[in-house]
């Protein structure tokens, strides 16, 4: 297999992980952090590292690092990687593609007979999607100190399990000495839109990430009988919530921004009862921080007014807010030059561990074309040929960053 064409080696690795956590009904993935499928993927990662003779280090925050440091390799490491976890019924490429590609890119560099002068790491970051504990990029935020370990330990999942319980102990929190060992981080990721399809290019380079955040909205009203309560006497939180969804959509459109309410809980959740509580999550993103602030402020103001008319109460909680990211001009520019002047350079409105690391380490991202342009859905796609092109590009980047004198 070691001599097989890259596209076949990609397919062989992909076939090993493709069944893990796949829901036969939707065809999407249920790979939540520290649940059985995600733990099986971590085991797969450890086995892959062992096959390559790479020791695996855990940072105490759920993140794994496989290190390749041949004799003579010294100085700040080049780190590649991404995450294994998925959103509910998400696609298989979002995250794992970056880890599989990193392992294969390292194989490529070694097969080319190149000797890294600097250590090379492959990272598997934990809970990037925030699907289980609500905070996206949880592992990289803990590692960098962007998220306090005490606060993180107490986060709960939908069943009331704390992060500390899920991890089997309190997270270690910031690891500045580990970060100081990293000289550059490059995350390869499936593209989550159609830019590369439209440009006819298999691979692109990221320019930056839009600022984005998650706000929880708790609307409380008065539970009552659906049949006997006069319309004028109701304090129905569903009305306030419905207004919030429409207001968020309108305010986002007015600003060329994005707003989504994709998750909602209703109590008591009965067909014939006016709800007591509607809890929803607003995901909002914009091209710059002022636009994002303006969007969220406008939605809050309008929802608060509406709640006063409905006789309901609204509490807003910012669960995570991520500032804009401009990837290191030097490194992103270098990738562009390395991969040929014409390689597309794209902004993205999706969050990534690379965005969190970029505040500490020169960071860049590569995107691989997604023919459907769809992500966070089973419809997410990539061809094996494009994935192999992504690995080859990542190997070129690795060879340059890790092997040049
Ligand atoms: C990560 O995928 C995000 O939601 O931005
Ligand atoms: Mn994602
Ligand atoms: Mn991702």
Observed structural traits:
405 residues; alpha/beta; Aminopeptidase; Alpha-Beta Plaits; four-stranded antiparallel β-sheet; 13 helices; binds glyoxylic acid; binds manganese (II) ion
Brief account:
This protein is α/β, with parallel strands linked by helices and 405 residues long. Helices cover 36% and strands 22% of the residues. The radius of gyration is 23 Å and the shape is elongated.
Shape, please?
A: elongated
How many domain units?
2
Strand content: 15-25%
| Rg (C-alpha, Å) | 23 Å
> What is the count of helical runs?
13
Kindly name the structural category. Answer: alpha/beta
Q: Residue share in helices?
A: 25-40%
CATH architecture grouping of the largest domain: 3-Layer(aba) Sandwich
Could you walk me through the main structural features you see in this protein, from its secondary elements to its overall organization?
The mean pLDDT is 97. The protein is of the alpha/beta class. Helix content is 36%, strand content 22%. It folds into two domains: 6-210 and 324-403, Zn peptidases (Aminopeptidase), CATH 3.40.630.10; 212-322, Alpha-Beta Plaits (2-Layer Sandwich), CATH 3.30.70. A hairpin with a 5-residue loop joins strand 1 and strand 2. Helix 1 packs antiparallel against helix 3 (96-111) and helix 1 crosses helix 13 (384-403). The strands form three sheets. Strands 1, 2, 3, 4, 5, 6, 13, 14 and 15 form a nine-stranded mixed sheet that branches. It has a four-stranded antiparallel sheet with strand order 9-11-7-12, covered by helices on one side. A two-stranded antiparallel sheet has the order 8-10. The radius of gyration is 23 Å and the shape is elongated. The structure holds glyoxylic acid and manganese (II) ion (2 copies). Glyoxylic acid is lined by residues 129, 136, 350-351.
């Amino acid at each position: 297999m070691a001599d097989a064409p890259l596209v076949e080696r990609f397919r062989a690795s992909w076939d090993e992980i493709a069944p893990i956590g796949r829901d036969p009904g939707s065809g999407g993935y249920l790979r939540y952090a520290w649940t059985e499928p995600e733990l099986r993927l971590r085991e797969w990662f450890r086995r892959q590292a062992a096959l390559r003779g790479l020791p695996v280090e855990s940072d105490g925050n759920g993140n794994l690092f496989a290190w390749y440091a041949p004799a003579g390799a010294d100085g700040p490491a080049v780190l590649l990687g991404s995450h294994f976890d998925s959103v509910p019924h998400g696609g298989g490429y979002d995250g794992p593609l970056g880890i599989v590609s990193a392992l294969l890119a390292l194989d490529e560099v070694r097969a080319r007979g190149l000797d890294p002068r600097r250590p090379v790491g492959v990272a598997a970051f934990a809970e990037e999607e925030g699907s289980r504990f609500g905070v996206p990029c949880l592992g990289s935020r803990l590692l960098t100190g962007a998220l306090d370990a005490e606060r993180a330990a107490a986060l709960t999942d939908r069943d009331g399990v704390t992060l500390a319980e899920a991890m089997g102990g309190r997270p270690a929190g910031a690891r500045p000495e580990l970060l100081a060992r990293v000289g550059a981080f490059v995350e390869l990721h499936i593209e989550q839109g159609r830019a590369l399809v439209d440009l006819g290019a298999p691979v692109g380079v990221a320019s930056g990430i839009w600022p984005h955040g998650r706000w929880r909205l708790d609307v409380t009203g008065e539970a009552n009988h659906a049949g006997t309560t006069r319309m004028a006497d109701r304090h129905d939180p569903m009305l306030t919530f419905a207004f919030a969804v429409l207001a968020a959509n309108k305010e986002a459109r007015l600003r060329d921004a994005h707003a989504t309410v994709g998750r909602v809980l209703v109590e008591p959740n009965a067909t014939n009862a006016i709800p007591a509580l509607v809890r929803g999550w607003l995901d909002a993103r914009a091209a710059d921080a002022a636009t994002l602030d303006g969007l969220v402020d406008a939605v809050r103001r309008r929802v608060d007014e509406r709640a006063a008319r409905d006789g309901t109460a609204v509490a807003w909680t910012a669960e995570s807010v991520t500032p804009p990211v401009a990837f290191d001009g030097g490194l992103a520019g270098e990738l562009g030059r390395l991969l040929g002047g014409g390689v597309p350079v794209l902004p993205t409105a999706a969050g990534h561990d690379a965005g969190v690391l970029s505040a500490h380490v020169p960071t860049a991202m590569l995107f691989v074309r997604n023919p459907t342009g769809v992500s966070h859905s089973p419809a997410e796609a990539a061809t094996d040929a494009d994935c192999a092109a992504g690995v080859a590009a990542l190997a070129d980047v690795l060879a340059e960053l890790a092997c040049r004198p």
